[in-house]
Amino acid sequence: MANKFDVLGIGNAIVDILTHVEDDLLQSLEIPKGSMRLVDELESDSIYKKLGQCIECSGGSAANTIAALASLGSKTSYIGKIKDDQLGAVFKHDITSIGTEFNTPPATSGPSTAHCLVLVSPDAERTMCTYLGACGQLNENDIDEDMVRASNIIYLDGYLWDPEPAKAAFRKAINIAKEAGNKVAFTLSDSFCVDRHRNEFLHLAKNDIDILFANEDEIKILYGTDDLDQAVKMAQSDCEIAAITCSAKGCIVTNKDNIIAVEGRTVPMVKDTTGAGDAFAAGFLHGISQGKSLAECGALGNLIASEVIAHLGARLDINLKSFVEENT
Amino acid sequence: MANKFDVLGIGNAIVDILTHVEDDLLQSLEIPKGSMRLVDELESDSIYKKLGQCIECSGGSAANTIAALASLGSKTSYIGKIKDDQLGAVFKHDITSIGTEFNTPPATSGPSTAHCLVLVSPDAERTMCTYLGACGQLNENDIDEDMVRASNIIYLDGYLWDPEPAKAAFRKAINIAKEAGNKVAFTLSDSFCVDRHRNEFLHLAKNDIDILFANEDEIKILYGTDDLDQAVKMAQSDCEIAAITCSAKGCIVTNKDNIIAVEGRTVPMVKDTTGAGDAFAAGFLHGISQGKSLAECGALGNLIASEVIAHLGARLDINLKSFVEENT
Q1: Are B57 and A56 spatial neighbours (Cβ–Cβ below 8 Å)?
Q2: Interface residue of B317, B319, B321, B323 to substitute, partner A, most A CBs within 10 Å
Q3: What are B84-115's pLDDT values in tens digits?
Q4: Mutate: best of B86, B98, B117, partner A, most A CBs <10 A
Q5: Do A55 and B57 make contact, defined as CB atoms within 8 angstroms?
Q6: Which CATH number fits domain A5-11+67-109+134-327: 3.40.1190.20, 3.20.20.140, 3.40.228.10, 3.40.50.300?
Q7: Spans of all domains in chain A
Q8: Which residues are within 8 A (CB) of A178 and not within 5 positions of it... i.e. 6 or more apart?
Q9: pLDDT tens track for B143-176
Q10: Which CATH number fits domain B5-11+61-111+134-327: 3.30.2350.10, 2.120.10.80, 3.40.1190.20, 3.30.70.270?
Q11: Distance, CA of A281 to CA of B163 (rounded, Å)
């Protein structure tokens, strides 16, 4: 595997706007706790006006994973659509500052760079309202074919299935990767997202996905069963590798020969679950790139996830390579 | 004191861009640790490119104080210049979200909303590089005379002395406040800022300032002495009230009759000193508005400052009113 990049992420390029909220605000907004909901600009403005002081940090599911992978020492690249505005500059700075190659041409007109209102409730659960903005403009022409060919793994997030033109970009990237003999990794992203795109995701799992990421709810919804064991077996049958996160319990990881449960790490004080799944995927994929065993990949995923939930926000500004050296 | 506002803040409207840095980066940038340095857009871009992942949060010295005052339950208003861009919208959201009245018309052309690169080193000290952008457009016309008259205290930060047109705005506000019989509070902001404007600040202290805020370094530079006791006595002679912060040791507060040292609070883990002085001023001024004794005002300043340095960033998104009730 002498490709230029270990992992190329393709996803929605988003800046998070984070704040703490009380449960009654979520109730009055009628947003299910823990979900990701798409909102238009007006709805976003209306919710934003109800929030207290916020902080802004780069987000986007695949981008969070790529940022953590870069911090772990993987060679990374990213494709996603920003606009040439202030939040776009923030997004670009943050992902490139840790060595990720990111050259997708920014939109020069149309909606602004995407943002996501991340509402962290007292139990540390996060609920998200996403305004996709410029992400809606990602299209086939944005897929840098050389970059896809030069990446051992392409990692796609299910949220990318929401903006219509991105689907074509998504499929183009998958086809190029498969032709080049590279691996396709995919995360189901969110149970509501699986619900919206279930049939297409099932088709992808059967035909295109080599490495599948999901949590318990998402995998059960995908396979239409309440039985986790059954869902895991179906994922094992469809994909070369699957990694199912089970919150504090850890994860279940599978390849064609094994199903292994890897115990989670104890986190003294969970502050914010934003980005836990993204961080898990980073640790797991870093393990894959390093040729680690399936169980080791699961443990590395658990480790990075446990660190991100001990902090506010989906990204860490610590050097994860040193962190892993000190904690394994 | 039946005015509409307890405190009106007038200052540079800035969004902070915060990140952790190692000491050698500060050395290579040749920026004295702990200082605030003004940079133009090119310098700012060049430094930003050298930084890792950042978070963005509203800042600006007087604005931080006003935000904390609002959270404490004071009635607050603010005057400062943003542009009608994304970071301007962030600044406006954050300060108004906690109930502060802020109506200064944003600039519609010219430089973007100001930002400050805040470099937090491993010892939790912060070093700041400020691009003043739209703040340079604040002028006399932005001073809402009714708002100044309706504010028991106007609070000005020394940094406002840096953009030239703001000085005229500053003087206009002082004159209106004095005519209305309201108090003028002022913070020296930063030792380099005092150095830049020493003679003018001395003149203000003697003639215009009722409540003076400074730290040890700043007050010694202002009065041209290495003897802290002497500097404090000079401040006592010039101003009705002075509050001198002494880092972990606490503060020295004076009125015409007394000089009182108020012991600082123990902070188990100092994470980031950004905004410590701003937070102190908020606690102190809230005490003044509540008719507390001089020593109580100093203790309240110490309390709010001790909380802000236990977190990253200059603002807290906790309700400070409840926090004070639980901690006093």
Answers
A1: yes
A2: B317
A3: 999 999 999 999 999 999 999 999 999 999 99
A4: B86
A5: yes
A6: 3.40.1190.20
A7: 5-11+67-109+134-327
A8: A184, A208
A9: 999 999 999 999 999 999 988 889 999 999 999 9
A10: 3.40.1190.20
A11: 48
